[in-house]
Amino acid sequence: MARRRIAPEYILAGLAVLTVITIVLFMTVGARGSWGFVLSFRGTKVLTMVLVAYAIGLSTVMFQTVMQNRILTPSIMGFDSLYVLIQTATVFLFGGLAAATVHPYIKFSIELGAMLVFSGLLCLWMFSGRHRSLHLMVLVGIVIGTLFRSMSNFMVRIIDPNEFARIQDSLFASFNSLNTDLLTVSMVIIGLATVVAWRIGHTFDVLSLGRETAINLGVPYKRTVLIILLLVTLLVSVSTALVGPVTFFGLLVANLGYLMMGTSKHRYVLPATIMLGVICLLGGQLILERVFNFTTAISVIIEFAGGLVFIILILRGAAR
């Protein structure tokens, strides 16, 4: 007798309830003193982590849709390496003190602009020609990402040890020292990206069927994919500027979303992935703060779990 699956609508409703419970627990557990301060302080952290989970979840699912591959994330294009290179080069050229005193909006604009220019040139160069493809673009992105990492490693090896200590924290994602000055501009950018993604959202399921099928069904393939890649760049840049590079988080929550929903339809997978991201970030941060007393970084746990998922996906793919 075939096992009956739970309808996706019921799973989404359960995830929504669990998301609300996680947010309430994060806001209230261990709270002492003035509720005005507690709600303001923790509310800002909740808003930041929700934005990061939303940006990473949406960008990863869209990227995997156009690539037709669930083990790839936007970081493979070299975004994380470019972010690390910018941080390292800033300290190497101007010193740690000057880098630490740069206005957040100027720093955010430089990082966002560099990632957008890099991604825009890569997409237009590798994907706009007649015989060029997404796979060639990804391969070139991997090579350029390796170049960025090599340049960063070179500067790290010759930099002053005291200056290296200053940039070490910025090379890893941190959810404890959040940059709240950028919340408003991040919400505006993510909101605009969401509107564009919603306008072309009807093509996502068709794109996941492949290039030829999408073209035969009337989707302007090249233009739609270029728009999606630029949206992915925008979302990844915002999340990276807020908390730092998170390589495997998108891979982890996106595949959990596919697994829980049991379908590839984006109207189910996208909200499930975003809610799972919120639950993982807030739940993980809550356990980190209340159980381990900040003795470890949540980004380390995320990267470890995401790395295990990546290996499992590789082995399952190899087994098939």
Give the helix/strand layout:
Blueprint: H1 8-28, H2 35-67, H3 79-94, H4 96-100, H5 104-127, H6 134-158, H7 161-168, H8 183-199, H9 204-207, H10 211-216, H11 221-243, H12 249-261, H13 266-290, H14 298-319
Helix pairs in contact: 1-13, 2-8, 2-11, 2-12, 2-13, 3-5, 3-6, 3-7, 5-6, 5-11, 8-11, 12-13, 12-14
Description:
The longest helix has 33 residues, at 35-67. With 320 residues, the protein is mainly alpha-helical. 76% of the residues lie in helices and 0% in strands. The mean pLDDT is 81. Helix 2 (35-67) runs parallel beside helix 8.
For this entry, give a set of tags:
single chain; mainly alpha; 0% strand; 320 residues; 14 helices
- Our measurement of the CA-to-CA distance between the termini, rounded to an integer number of angstroms, reads 25 Å
- Overall 3D form: globular
The profile of the biggest β sheet is: none
C-alpha Rg, in Å? 20 Å
Give the DSSP E fraction (strand runs of 2 or more residues): under 5%
Structural class, by secondary structure, is mainly alpha
Q: What would a concise description of this structure say?
A:
76% of the residues lie in helices and 0% in strands.
